[in-house]
Structures are given as C-alpha cells and as structure tokens.
C-alpha cells in the first residue's frame, strides 16, 4: 500500500492546528513524501502540527527520522508536533527508540488539538 | 541452503517486496503470528540500511536476503556489498561522512540498527572485505502453518 496524506486546519484553545492525516506505509520509499509535506507546511507558516497516524499500517526508522526532522523544523519557530496513535505495533517502535519521550502522543485528534501544555 | 533467497537492485521501492516475502516465509515456517510484525519491521530496517549503503557508495550489486527455515528457528540474513568499515556497523560514522543527505536523516542508519537490536533478541552484525551481513534469528514455537 502506498502512502496517503491529507491536511486540514482546526482551531484549538492554543490557536490554529494543522492536522496531517497519514495512511498506508511509511518506509524508506514513501517517507520522502511525508518529509516534503511537513517541510511545505512549515515553509507556509504552519508551525503547530498534529500528525494523525491512525491509518498507518507500517512505520520504520526512516519514518521516525522524518518525524524527528519535522519536530526540529517546527521547534525552530516555537511550534509543536503532536502525534495521534493508538496502535500498539506503531507505539512499540516509538518506545524501543526512546522517542515516546520526544513526541507528545495522543489518543485522538481532538485530544491533540486541545492540548495546551 | 536458504529456504528462499531474494536479490533485489538497491532501490527503496523494493524494500517493501522484501518485507512481504520475509513475512510470508516466516509465517509458513511457523513463526508466531505475534512476532511477524517484528520480522517485517526488522527485515525492512536491514534492507533499508543495505539499500542506503549501496547507494551511498555507488555499489551496483543487488542486496541479498536469505530466509532460512531450520528445525527450531527461522533466520534472515541481509547482506550488503559495501566492504569493510562502513558496512556491518563497524564504523557508524563513515556513512554519515560521505552521504550528502539532509541533516534530518543523519541518524537514520544508526536508528535502523537501534530498531533491529530493540526488536530482535538474536542478532549478529558482521562485516569483512566483501561486505556486511545482518543475521537475525527467531525461534519457531508452533507447528508449521497449514498450506
């Protein structure tokens, strides 16, 4: 399965958030598309991103690298990058790489959009 | 002799094929369903790393994946043909020094190995003048899957 990406803007208590809905497989082949999307959003001035990973079937370290790169970019603008994920197989990858300490991971898009910490 | 052997040109789009084949052969060999996700991820990481090394060093040879069903274990060997330091994890800094990539992905190679060692209990990384090999082994607990 290929990667699917869609974005939408949502207002939260902390201001506008851009939700990036990702579906399919994020691997060495498809990760560059996600990177381009994140870079484009930041270049267009969207610094508060919520990456919804509920539709992701597969994630590898290339994908993790892209997410870390996205976080670095938004942080340069005092922004945020929050993840939405409930899938154990995906969460496990964040856990074994220690990235659960780096990314705020939420159970729903609403929760992520409404987070103000 | 390997149960199934796969050679693919070092292109990112073929890594998915390697994952699918590895998971299918592992399932047939009787690797526990719960572990198949780990097999898929680990073989993908090893292949992505080999593809990255071949491309960074301009190696035109294919990446090799050997899937072997043994009596009580299932093993996967992913071999690259980048000799000596810079393959097999012997010198983690080497690839970063030559690959002209975005700084975002600078830690990708090491991250792949980190994921593999976090996932697989039995993993061996070796390298010599002919290239590097990552060998990963999983126990077979159940009976061989029905055809």
From TrEMBL, chain A:
Keyword Repeat found: no
Residues in STAS domain copies: 19-116
The keyword Phosphoprotein is assigned to this record: yes
UniProt keywords, alphabetically: Phosphoprotein
GO MF: anti-sigma factor antagonist activity
NCBIfam families membership: ant_ant_sig
Protein name: Anti-sigma factor antagonist
Gene expressing this chain: rsbV_6
From TrEMBL, chain B:
Keywords: ATP-binding, Kinase, Nucleotide-binding, Serine/threonine-protein kinase, Transferase
Top-level EC class: transferase
InterPro entries linked to this entry: Anti-sigma-factor_SerPK, HATPase_C_sf, HATPase_dom
The keyword Nucleotide-binding appears for this protein: yes
UniProt superkingdom: Bacteria
EC number of the protein: 2.7.13.3
Any GO molecular function: protein histidine kinase activity
Presence of the UniProt keyword Acetylation in the record: no
Domain Histidine kinase/HSP90-like ATPase, chain residue ranges per copy: 8-138
Pfam families to which the protein is assigned, alphabetical: HATPase_c_2
Region (Disordered): 76-112
Residue ranges with Acidic residues bias: 99-108
Protein name according to UniProt: ATP-binding protein
Native species: Streptomyces noboritoensis
Taxonomic lineage of the native organism: Bacteria, Bacillati, Actinomycetota, Actinomycetes, Kitasatosporales
